């Protein structure tokens, strides 16, 4: 099939689609060096007003189907099949206030969530985050009333302490199958991440957590979601708590495929025909991905392409402080081995970047 993959950053989706044997046309806001490896043709679009460019690229590439990546999941596309959940469904599920109420109504463990305006029903400290958003951007802990700052679109959540995890799920609108349970890496300091910024994944989660896989399947099925979806959890002393649902391809896509071996894009495609993937075989190895963030404003002058890097910016690229530079991948026989390799490779990268200062 001719597949147009378009979104803010879509390299991971383009890779999976290409490995599944499809002819991929890739459009995003970075057009990183390695994106061309996975696409017949690539293009870069401005981040501001990205939705306005959809019809142009559909007309230009005339694909058999479109996959909307991060940032464009709620867009409407005319004249071509769209392999995403319906925009209204995605908008509903990504609303963290709506989701908390739905989880409570359905009897799933949830985080107490309130509109920012009635935050007084939560005790300090609590978490403030955007009502709609991803990647941990804009999340912060509020310890006292002096730290409160009103901003439109914020919600307040009970501060829950636990180990971050996620489940990758394929749904067909009626049923769902968990294909991987992952550890989430959040705010990893040695990778330059601050606060609650999403930093990557380790797949599979060690030790295994079958309970959250089954719970994620129930959630995706009850929501009627199709294709690749994710459910984020916090594993607390009292049990797992649902954090959010991502009705789209997740950042864990690389590690899920590297660890398990099955192609997620093909499972995503077949789900729109009502099919679910077979039960996943035990992981053949442990896979890790870490996102490295810029410590300051910088210009990339070194060639950062390695067999273990992804989302690689080209020479001359300007990276703002706290923005992602690239991703590092690693395989190993255990979590500890993978983390050690990620740290070693992050140090190598740091040396290359410092030489450019």
Strand content: 25-35%
- Please state how the strands of the largest beta sheet are arranged side by side: 13-12-9-10-11-14-18-16
Q: List how many beta strands DSSP finds.
A: 18
Percent helix, as a range, is 10-25%
Rg:
20 Å
Order of helices and strands: EHEEHEHHEEEEEEEHEEHHEEEEEH
Morphology call: globular
Helix/strand structural class: alpha+beta
Low-confidence stretches: none
Please work out how many helical segments DSSP would assign. Answer: 8
What's the end-to-end separation, in Å? 44 Å
Biggest beta sheet attributes: 8 strands, antiparallel
Q: What is the residue-averaged pLDDT?
A: 93
Any overview of this molecule?
- The chain has 357 residues and is of the alpha+beta class.
- 24% of the residues lie in helices and 29% in strands.
- Strands 13-12-9-10-11-14-18-16 form an eight-stranded antiparallel sheet, with helices on both faces. The chain has a four-stranded parallel sheet with strand order 3-2-1-4, with helices on both faces.
- A hairpin with a 2-residue loop joins strand 12 and strand 13 (239-246).
Q: What's the quick description here?
A:
The chain has 357 residues and is an alpha+beta fold.
What keywords describe this structure?
357 residues; alpha+beta; eight-stranded antiparallel β-sheet; four-stranded parallel β-sheet
Describe the secondary-structure layout.
Blueprint: E1 2-6, H1 11-19, E2 23-28, E3 41-44, H2 54-61, E4 65-68, H3 87-93, H4 96-106, E5 113-115, E6 126-130, E7 140-142, E8 154-158, E9 163-172, E10 176-186, E11 198-203, H5 210-223, E12 226-236, E13 239-246, H6 253-260, H7 264-271, E14 286-293, E15 298-299, E16 309-310, E17 318-319, E18 324-332, H8 335-356
Parallel strand pairs: 1-2, 1-4, 2-3
Antiparallel strand pairs: 5-8, 6-7, 6-8, 9-10, 9-12, 10-11, 11-14, 12-13, 14-18, 15-17, 16-18
